UniProtKB/TrEMBL annotation:
Compartments in which it is found: Cell outer membrane
Keyword Cell membrane: no
Superkingdom of origin: Bacteria
One term under GO cellular component: pore complex
Organism: Pseudomonas cremoricolorata
The protein, known as: Sugar transporter
Main location: membrane
InterPro entries cross-referenced by the UniProt entry: Poly_export, Poly_export_N, SLBB_dom
UniProt keyword list: Cell outer membrane, Ion transport, Lipoprotein, Membrane, Palmitate, Polysaccharide transport, Porin, Signal, Sugar transport, Transmembrane, Transmembrane beta strand, Transport
Length: 363
C-alpha cells in the first residue's frame, strides 16, 4: 500500500514537472504563439486606433462610392507639329525650273533631284549648294523655306519638298511593364496613349494594377490604366515618354486564412468578401468567425488608424463584407478560435504524456 502510494506520488510529481515544463515553453511564446494579437486584445480599449463594429448604422463610410460613368467620347488623333531633332532622316526633293541644259538640279518633269540626309548630333543638315545648316527644332516647312532661300541666285526658280522618313523627334518611347517596350514612330500618323501601349504589346498585369506616366519634357501626368480604358485617352505629343509600372494595389492577409501573405487586390473597389475569397477564405479548422478585422492606417501623417470588426456568425455580415471596400495597404486579420488556442496548450502536454509512457517513465 505504501509502495503503491509512493509510486503514485512520484508519478504525479513527474507529470506535474512535465506539464510545468511544457507550459513554461508555452509561456516563452513557443507552443501558443500566434500570427497576431488575440481577439480580446484588439477589442480592449486602445487609444492608438478607432475600433468600429460594423453593422447597418456604421458601414456607410466604408462602402464604395458612386462609380464613375464610362466616357463615350473617342479620342481622335490629330497631327501635331513636328520639330526636328538630331538623328532624324529627311528625304529632300529639289526641282529646277530652268531650261534642262542649264539647270543645277533635275527639272520637276523628270522627278527632280532626290536627296536623303540625316541631321547630325549637332543638329546640322548638309545639302549640295546649301551647305551645313542648323535645323534642329525647325518644322519641315521652315526647312523648305531655308533651302529655297539658300539656293536663291544659284538657280532661277526652285521647288522643294522635305519629308521626314526616319524620326526620333516624332517618335514615342514606351517602357516599363509592357510586353514589347520600344520606340514607336508617328510617321504613319499621330498616336494616342492607347495606340502606343497597344503597339508595345499591352501591359503585363491586370489594368487596375498598372500606373501610366506620360512625360513630354515640360510636364508629367499619371493615370491608372483602367481609367484610360474607361475613356480617359489622350493624344501623345511627339517625343513623349510613356512609362508603365506596378501600382501599389496590395493588401496583407494574416491569421486564420487559407493563404496568408501579401496579395494583389483582385480589382478596383475590391470588397472584403472578394479579398477573403482571393486568399481561400477563413480556415475552418481554427478560424474564429467572430474575429474578422480590417486594420487601416489613418489619412495624413497625424490621422488615427481604424480597425473594423466583423462578426461573420451574423448572416447579415456576408452582405456587409460585400459592401466594405478594401483599400491598398489594408491588413485583413482573422483571429484563432479560443478552443484552438487551448488545444495548442493541451496538445503538447498529451504528447509529452504519451512520450513518457512510451519511454517507461510511468512504469
Amino acid at each position: 500500500m505504501i509502495n503503491s502510494l509512493a509510486k503514485k506520488t512520484v508519478l504525479n510529481a513527474k507529470l506535474a514537472a512535465l506539464a510545468l515544463a511544457v507550459l513554461g515553453l508555452a509561456g516563452c511564446g513557443g507552443a501558443v504563439s500566434g500570427a497576431g494579437p488575440y481577439k480580446g486584445s484588439i477589442e480592449s480599449k486602445n487609444e492608438t486606433y478607432n475600433l468600429v463594429d460594423i453593422n447597418a448604422s456604421t458601414i456607410t463610410p466604408y462602402m464604395a462610392g458612386v462609380p464613375r460613368p464610362v466616357l463615350t467620347n473617342i479620342t481622335k488623333p490629330r497631327s501635331a507639329e513636328v520639330r526636328l531633332a538630331p538623328g532624324d532622316t529627311l528625304s529632300v526633293l529639289i526641282a529646277d525650273t530652268a531650261p534642262e541644259g542649264s539647270a543645277v538640279f533635275a527639272p520637276l518633269a523628270s522627278g527632280g533631284t532626290q536627296l536623303n540626309t540625316r541631321i547630325d548630333t549637332e543638329g546640322m543638315l548638309s545639302l549640295p549648294y546649301v551647305g551645313r545648316q542648323f535645323v534642329a527644332g525647325m518644322t519641315l516647312n521652315q526647312v523648305e523655306n531655308m533651302i529655297r532661300r539658300e539656293l536663291k541666285g544659284i538657280t532661277t526658280d526652285v521647288q522643294t519638298h522635305v519629308e521626314l522618313v526616319g524620326d526620333l523627334s516624332g517618335s514615342v518611347l514606351v517602357a516599363g511593364a509592357v510586353k514589347k517596350p520600344g520606340r514607336f514612330s508617328t510617321l504613319q500618323g499621330p498616336l494616342t496613349l492607347l495606340d502606343a501601349v497597344n503597339q508595345a504589346g499591352g501591359p503585363v498585369m491586370e489594368p487596375h494594377l498598372v500606373n501610366v506616366t506620360v512625360r513630354t519634357g515640360t510636364e508629367s501626368q499619371q493615370f491608372n490604366y483602367e481609367d484610360v480604358l474607361a475613356g480617359n485617352n489622350m493624344i501623345l505629343r511627339p517625343n513623349s515618354e510613356v512609362v508603365l509600372d506596378r501600382a501599389r494595389q496590395r493588401f496583407v492577409a494574416m491569421g486564420a486564412v487559407s493563404e496568408p501573405g501579401l496579395k494583389d487586390l483582385p480589382g478596383q473597389n475590391t470588397s472584403l468578401l472578394d479579398a477573403l475569397g482571393s486568399v481561400g477564405g477563413l480556415r475552418e479548422a481554427n478560424a474564429n468567425p467572430e474575429g474578422v478585422f480590417v486594420f487601416r492606417m489613418g489619412s495624413g501623417p497625424k490621422g488615427k488608424p481604424t480597425v473594423l470588426r466583423l462578426n461573420m456568425r451574423d448572416p447579415a455580415a456576408l452582405f456587409y463584407a460585400r459592401q466594405i471596400v478594401i483599400k491598398p495597404d489594408d491588413t485583413i486579420y482573422v483571429t484563432n478560435a479560443a478552443v484552438y488556442e487551448w488545444q495548442k496548450v493541451i496538445s503538447p502536454i498529451v504528447q509529452t504524456m504519451l512520450l513518457g509512457r512510451t519511454t517507461g517513465i510511468y512504469n
